[in-house]
């Protein structure tokens, strides 16, 4: 049995790590996962950077930002698999929710254009939005969404970093108008009756990589066997998580004090896609709200990394072509492929794709010909082709 | 003091903050301000515009400080980074002790080191104190539970204190458990039955 230490932030989408350890998928590979909870993303990054952990649960854009020299860091990171797809929500303060309702918005939870237009109309400029970390899909998707609707950042949108645990306080203190956060924090804002949920981020981009398994690139390349074992146990855990019977047990396990220390019924909402969106108890049902395995969810597409690299370059003024190139090297489909080779688990034939091109689930070429990708449209209908990005 | 640095400490535990302030003050390391409130952290740091920000690693607001590393305008935002890139050893020992530092760009590791050293020493010392406190609290809790369990046994079986304790110990040994755990089980069961 080999011990491997992994840093994570106690969030619902850390489930593959917790399940791999608790349900024995790691043990089957001869691994004992030492899971180390961290209070912030900068802590996770530093733990990985300075070798306090071997691998980490990380916001998909974080290792790419490091590669672009944004924020602190010394060791180059790579993302060897995607841990979760989607799973985040946008919400607003009670005051803004009232204005939206008065303006006739139905909180339909599906139409990102309608929700965004209503939000822009209901709030003063600049719109103040809290996100957990500057380099996150939360920030990227908000900027993409609001810019497309005519409210470009940073002139008109003030994106502020607020720890998820302080999001409800920041809303209540009128420091922010809206927020974008991963579960269970959105549900907790509703539970504390300080805000309403407005939109799942999957309404902006139907299938986006949310968290990745990151490693120091040097470590991943020097430890291919160990790295392979870890990836396989996590992909197996993801497949288990996707079973219809798993949410109940998963919510139960993650609710323990060692992990998320929250009541299971709040965790189960996001796992089943049945969210409570207002303090009055209104509910919405979102298929694929948080996906771990469907549609090759765990595969680290180079095109996803390039999309993130381009967005980061746009908002920080870096060279776009250079940034996409640097980003592309961070996601490692080659390492992922090597890990799954001979395991009986299927992998896509390509390592890059046109993002946003699928309007419905589509079967694609794969090693065993069994992979169906989920729909991945952007709300504005645009596509991202890494070979002709602009 | 010509070389005095302006230092901000973000720490919700006022006792720990005081210890760090004392350590830095006795080393004559500059003007020190303590922030204990999480809200508006970024705005207040911008207003103070310090040379160094020290923050507890276990504080989730650390991510708010990361925002300052995205220096759009160095005049309004101190260009901050996690300690000095060239001194990984210093950064690592700081992280292990539970403190991280954000310094204005250009402040050399040499000038930062005494500040971090003082903070690290205090963090370690405080960590030990807290562990001791936890341990003794737990010991007290366990003793209380054992006393209650003894009381329950004395009443239910009509035995004296010594015999009640012997019974608890025997059970614990037979089951390979701690006396405190057996006592807790008994107290819980008694609570359910009463």
Automatic annotation (TrEMBL), chain A:
- Keyword Cell inner membrane present in the record's keywords: the answer is yes
List the Pfam families hit by this protein, alphabetically: NMT1_2
Q: Which residues form a coiled coil?
A: none
**Which GO cellular component terms are attached?**
endomembrane system
Q: Which InterPro entries match?
A: NrtA/CpmA_ABC-bd_dom (IPR044527)
Question: CDD domains of this UniProt entry?
Answer: PBP2_NrtA_CpmA_like
Q: Which Gene3D superfamilies match?
A: Periplasmic binding protein-like II
Q: What keyword terms does UniProt attach to this protein?
A: ATP-binding, Cell inner membrane, Cell membrane, Membrane, Nucleotide-binding, Transport
Q: Where does it reside? A: Endomembrane system
Q: What is a single molecular function from GO for this protein? A: ATP binding
The domain of life is Bacteria
Q: Which SUPFAM superfamilies match?
A: Periplasmic binding protein-like II
Q: What is its main location?
A: membrane
Q: What protein name applies here?
A: NitT/TauT family transport system ATP-binding protein
Q: What is the lineage of its organism?
A: Bacteria, Pseudomonadati, Pseudomonadota, Alphaproteobacteria, Rhodobacterales
TrEMBL record, chain B:
Per its record, what are the GO molecular function terms?
Answer: RNA binding
From its record, what is one biological process in GO terms? phosphorelay signal transduction system
- Give all residue intervals belonging to the Response regulatory domain: 6-120
Could you confirm whether the keyword Phosphoprotein appears in this record?
A: yes
Keywords (alphabetical) are: Phosphoprotein
Q: Which Pfam families match?
A: ANTAR
Organism, per UniProt?
Sulfitobacter noctilucicola
Task: Identify residues that carry 4-aspartylphosphate.
Answer: 56
For whether the record's keyword set contains Chloroplast, the answer is: no
Please report the name of this protein according to its UniProt entry.
Response regulator NasT
Query: Known InterPro entries for this protein?
Result: ANTAR, CheY-like_superfamily, Sig_transdc_resp-reg_antiterm, Sig_transdc_resp-reg_receiver, WH-like_DNA-bd_sf
* Residues of the ANTAR domain: 126-187
């Amino acid at each position: 049995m080999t011990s491997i230490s992994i840093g994570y932030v106690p969030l619902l989408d850390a489930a593959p790590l917790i399940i791999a350890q608790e349900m024995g998928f790691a043990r089957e590979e001869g691994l004992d996962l030492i899971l180390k909870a961290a209070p912030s993303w900068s802590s996770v990054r530093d733990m990985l950077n300075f070798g306090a952990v071997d691998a980490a649960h990380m916001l998909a854009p974080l290792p790419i930002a490091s590669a672009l020299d944004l924020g602190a860091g010394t060791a180059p990171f790579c993302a060897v698999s995607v841990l979760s797809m989607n799973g985040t929500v946008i919400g607003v303060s009670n005051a803004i929710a009232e204005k939206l309702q008065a303006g006739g918005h139905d909180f339909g939870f599906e139409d990102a254009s309608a929700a965004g237009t209503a939000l822009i109309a209901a709030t003063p400029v600049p719109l103040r939005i809290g996100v957990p970390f500057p380099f996150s899909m939360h920030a990227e998707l908000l900027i993409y969404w609001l810019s497309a609707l005519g409210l470009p950042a940073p002139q008109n949108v003030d994106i502020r970093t607020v720890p998820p645990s302080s999001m409800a306080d920041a809303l209540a203190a009128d420091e922010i108008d809206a927020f974008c956060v991963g579960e269970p924090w959105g549900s907790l804002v509703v539970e504390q009756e300080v805000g309403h949920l407005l939109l799942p981020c999957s309404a902006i981009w139907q299938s986006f990589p949310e968290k990745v398994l990151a490693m120091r690139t040097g470590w991943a390349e020097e430890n291919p066997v160990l790295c392979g074992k870890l990836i396989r146990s996590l992909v197996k855990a993801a497949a288990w998580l996707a079973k219809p019977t798993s949410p109940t047990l998963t919510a139960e396990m993650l609710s323990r004090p060692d992990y998320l220390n929250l009541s299971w019924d709040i965790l189960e909402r996001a796992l089943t896609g049945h969210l409570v969106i207002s303090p009055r108890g209104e509910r919405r049902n979102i298929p694929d709200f948080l996906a771990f395995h469907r549609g090759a969810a765990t595969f680290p597409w180079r095109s996803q990394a390039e999309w993130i690299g381009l967005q980061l370059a746009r908002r920080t003024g870096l060279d776009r072509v250079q940034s996409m190139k640097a980003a592309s090297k961070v996601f490692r489909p080659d390492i992922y492929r090597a890990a799954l080779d001979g395991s009986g688990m299927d992998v896509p034939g390509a390592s890059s794709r046109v993002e946003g091109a699928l309007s419905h689930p589509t079967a694609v070429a794969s090693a065993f010909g069994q992979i169906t990708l989920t729909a991945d449209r952007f709300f504005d209908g645009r596509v991202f082709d890494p070979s002709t990005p602009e | 003091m010509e070389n005095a640095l302006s230092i901000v400490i973000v720490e919700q535990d006022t006792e720990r903050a005081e210890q760090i302030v004392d350590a830095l003050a006795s080393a004559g390391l500059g003007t020190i301000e303590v922030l204990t409130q999480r809200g508006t952290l970024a705005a207040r740091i911008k207003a103070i515009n310090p040379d160094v920000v020290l923050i507890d690693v276990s504080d989730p607001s650390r991510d708010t400080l990361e925002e300052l590393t995205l220096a759009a305008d160095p005049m309004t935002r101190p260009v901050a980074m996690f300690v000095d890139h060239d001194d990984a050893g210093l950064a690592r020992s700081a992280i292990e002790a539970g403190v991280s530092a954000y310094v204005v760009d250009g402040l050399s590791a040499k000038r930062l080191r005494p500040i971090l050293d003082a903070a690290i020493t205090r963090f370690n010392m405080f960590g030990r104190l807290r562990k001791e406190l936890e341990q003794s609290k737990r010991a007290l809790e366990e003793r209380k539970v054992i006393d209650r369990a003894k009381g329950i046994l004395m009443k239910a079986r009509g035995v004296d204190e010594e015999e009640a304790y012997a019974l608890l110990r025997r059970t614990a040994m037979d089951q390979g458990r701690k006396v405190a755990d057996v006592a807790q089980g008994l107290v819980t069961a008694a609570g359910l039955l009463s």
